[in-house]
Write a structure and sequence with these properties.
SH3 type barrels, Alpha-Beta Plaits, alpha+beta, 5-stranded antiparallel β-sheet
Length: about 290
């Protein structure tokens, strides 16, 4: 009975100290990311200290369980293999820099922002699905950490928090191609240009760390002609969380400038041309009654 009292007292002391320390974190740590990480480490430390305290208190009772635990170990490991894999996945995520809270990832086939990393599960605020672009759809998804061993992990915001994106602008045949190209390219420079210094800095860091060649970050316009129109494609760099808003700004700017050309540049729409109808011949003959 004395050991149970000692164990209960030790756990109460640890829990009280943890609660006090957690409240104190808010006074000294203002950054949300740092506060979150400190709180998670505090809870982990409290768990380890509590486990050590219980082991020390009941050390004389645990000696007889050594053989039994050894025999049951294989069965327990088989029964809890998914849990063990998730714990191993948590260790890989924590110490292997797979991702961190706040990153946008695709994990286990689910795309979203990481809002919590637990020992067994990673919690995502999902994006996409029935909502277009990369906007939240309101679903919170729990993904087992073991998925990092089974499927690729796509990190949209890790070493290089920018994406290459494209928009396609259809221009009618007969328009001034040079003027159309200049309008589209200038819109890309105005909207995407302010991101280039920070994007270049981060890309240089990626090239120093990995074996990857240099890539063009400045906006670029390419042209192909299909059956209906001239298809201009603008390629540009964008922040991983601003794809939808950037496309809106680009199209707004491009349409505004095209309207100022007084018909020299015209956006195209689907058109159909009837090339001809075969002649129709009718042979009408009178028919007499027998």
């Amino acid at each position: 009975m004395g050991k149970l009292s000692a164990a209960a007292f030790a756990l109460i002391i640890i829990a009280g100290f943890t609660r006090y320390a957690e409240k104190s974190l808010g006074r000294y740590i203002k950054d949300n990311q740092t506060h979150y990480q400190a709180r998670k480490m505090l809870h982990l430390a409290a768990f380890i200290v509590g486990l050590i305290a219980l082991t020390f208190i009941f050390s004389d009772k645990l000696k007889g369980f050594g053989v039994a635990l050894g025999v049951a170990g294989a069965g327990i490991a088989f029964a809890l293999q998914e849990i063990i894999s998730s714990v191993a996945g948590w260790a890989m995520i924590t110490f292997g820099s797979f991702y961190k809270t706040g990153d946008r990832v695709q994990l286990g086939g689910i795309k979203g922002d990481v809002i919590d990393i637990g020992v067994l599960r990673t919690t995502l605020m999902e994006t996409g699905e029935w909502v277009k672009a990369d906007l939240y759809n309101g679903r919170i998804v729990l993904v087992a950490n073991s998925s990092v061993f089974k499927q690729p992990v796509f990190n949209y915001s890790g070493k290089f928090p920018f994406l290459w994106d494209e928009i396609i602008v259809p221009i009618r045949f007969g328009s001034d191609r040079s003027l159309a190209r200049e309008i589209i390219l200038q819109a890309g420079r105005e909207i995407s240009g302010p991101l280039l210094p920070s994007a270049r800095q981060r890309w240089n860091e990626v090239m120093r760390e990995f074996m990857v060649e240099d890539a063009r970050l400045e906006p670029a316009v390419t042209l192909i002609a299909n059956d209906n129109w001239l298809e201009f494609t603008l390629r540009y760099v964008v922040n991983y969380k601003a794809r939808r808003s950037t496309k809106d700004r680009l199209f707004e700017r491009i349409v505004e400038e095209i309207d100022k050309t007084a018909g020299k540049v015209t956006m195209a729409s689907a058109t159909f041309e009837i090339v001809g109808i075969p002649p129709l011949q009718a042979d009408v003959r009178s028919r007499k009654e027998p």
